[in-house]
Amino acid sequence: MENSTDKKMTGGEAIVKSLINEGVETIFGLPGIQLDPMFNSLHESSNEIRVINARHEQGVAYMAFGYAQSTGKPGVYAVVPGPGILNTTAALSTAYACNSRVLAITGQIPSSYIGRELGMLHEIPNQLSILEALTKFAKRINYPSDAPAIVSEAFKNMRSGRPRPTAIEMPMDIMWQKSEVTLRKFTDGYSPPAADPDLIKEAALIIFAIFVFQFFTFLTMQGRITFSRFKPYIAILSIAALIWSALFFAIGYPYWKMILIVAIGVAISPLIWQAFNIYKIKLKSQEGLEKWGGLSEDRKV
C-alpha cells in the first residue's frame, strides 16, 4: 500500500480525502454542527465527491443501503451523533441482515466530555458500543492523523469475508483540529483462506448422515417399515453406531460426528414413529366420535 505525502488538514478533511482515495464518489449526508468541518471539506471537494441530502437521518441511511445494494459499491452516509445516528439504526440493521457494504460516519461530543454525562448537545451514553453491536467494525478516530488508517480498516472489513456494514465516529473537537496527515491509497480486502478439503469431506458426510436419519424416520412415519419387525435390528445398529462413534472419538478419527448422528437418528426414529401413530389413533378416534355424534362441541380435544 503506497502512502501519499504528509499534509496538514483538519480531521473532517482527513475523512473526506480518505473516502475519495477509497473510490467513494457519492455520500449521503445530513449536516449538523458536529460535522461542520467534514461538510466544509465535502463542499471544497465537490468535483470529486457529491453529497446527496435528505430531510431525515433515516432517509440518508436507507439511501446508502439502496446504493450499496443496487451498485455493489460501498454506500456511505454521514449524520450527527446521538439522536442522529440512532435514527439510522433501522437501516444499519437492515444492511447487516442483508450483507451490505455500508459505512456509517457520525460525529461525537468533544472528546474531553465523552462519558462524563454533562448533558452536551446530542450526548448519549456508549454510542460506540451501540455501533459495535450493529456493525462488523466500529471505531472512534481520536486524532486527525489516525483517520486514514481507521477509514482504510473500515473498508478492508467491508471488502473482506462476509460483507457487513462498518462505522466510524469522530469527536467534534478532532473534526476541527489540524494535524499532519498521511493519506492512504485504495484498500484491498483480506485474502480469503483456502478451503480445507478434509473439512469439506467431513461436512459432506455429516449431511449424508442427517439425510439417512431423515429418510429412515420418513419411512417409519409412512408405515413403510414395521417397527415390531425391525426392532432387534434397530437396537443392534444403534448400539453398534454409538460404540463406533465413541471409539473413533477416542482415537481422533475425524468422522465420528457422522456416526454419532446416525446412532442418535436410528435410536430415536422409532420413538417418533410411535408418537406419530398415537397421534393418528387419537385423530381417528375423534373423527369417529364426531361422525356418530358421540362428542359434543364443548368436549372436543
Explain how this protein is built.
- By secondary structure, the chain is an alpha/beta fold.
- It has two domains: 7-181, Thiamin diphosphate (ThDP)-binding fold, Pyr/PP domains (Rossmann fold), CATH 3.40.50.970; 197-299.
- The protein has eleven helices and eight strands.
- The strands form two sheets. A six-stranded parallel β-sheet has the order 3-2-4-5-7-6, with helices on both faces.
- Helix 10 packs antiparallel against helix 11 (256-291).
- The mean pLDDT is 80.
Topology summary:
Elements lengths: L6 E4 H11 L4 E4 L6 H9 L5 E4 L3 H15 L3 E5 L3 H4 L2 H9 L4 E7 L18 H8 L2 E4 L6 H12 L7 E6 H5 L1 E4 L15 H25 L5 H25 L4 H36 L10
Parallel strand pairs: 2-3, 2-4, 4-5, 5-7, 6-7
Antiparallel strand pairs: 1-8
